[in-house]
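[retry 2/3] Protoporphyrinogen oxidase: previous attempt timed out, resubmitting with same input.
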Amino acid sequence: MVSILVVYESGEGQTAKVSEYVENVLTARGHDVTVRRVADAADVDVTLYDAVLVGSPVHYRTHLPEVVEFIEANLEALSARPNGFFQLSLASTIPLKVAQRGDDAYVDSLVTKTGWQPDHVGRFAGAVTYSQYNPVERMVFKLLAAVTTGDTDTSRDYEYTDWDDVDAFATAFADDVEARLERDTATRRHAGTRRFTWAATGVVLLLGVMAFAYWAAARQFVPAEC
Ligand SMILES: Cc1cc2nc3c(=O)[nH]c(=O)nc-3n(C[C@H](O)[C@H](O)[C@H](O)COP(=O)(O)O)c2cc1C
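[retry 2/3] Protoporphyrinogen oxidase: success.
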């Protein structure tokens, strides 16, 4: 069992849903999973976990600032253990090369900004939650939808997240973490065996030297008549 921390922030709730889904996949694999919003993660000590995932939506072509701050504040601890990053965006829903390049660019700019190169990256389609937007956002997203998805009915919300993608990401992460942990345990076991062999050899040699010294001393004190 591995202890895994999932830290995320969410504007309208879709990244929270994805984090919960990831938690369920990892928990079903038998791991001990802690999920925290960045806003509630001030007391979180990343070094206490075996592995870490960080998630953020893209808002205005960048990730949420509090997520970026969390990454910057925990850069060393993140990089020192198996880690991954997942993002939600609308660019991910648009099957055009230019949109996919834009989606990649969000991750690239995070890597450049923070210096963190995640082991695993998940790029997931998000949601359009008209019910939660202010009138300006609603109008902007309706216009955007008119030229992309066609989902312009503002009386309802649209979810584009492909849960199979999320499942595949969480499963690949769990596979990697488990394999790395197994390798570390094998290496530690091997080092322990080597230490034991050296110690046992030392004891045998010491006993040999002591036996020889005893034999040599005993010879010196043999009574003359013998
Ligand atoms: C104010 C706002 C700005 C957004 N800006 C972008 C953007 O620049 N690029 C993009 O691909 N998606 C953008 N999105 C779409 C979100 O990434 C998507 O809706 C995601 O599901 C939001 O996740 P959340 O509910 O966890 O905040 C934006 C959404 C909002 C509400």
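[retry 2/3] Protoporphyrinogen oxidase: Residues 163-220 form the longest helix (58 residues).
[retry 2/3] clearing retry counter.
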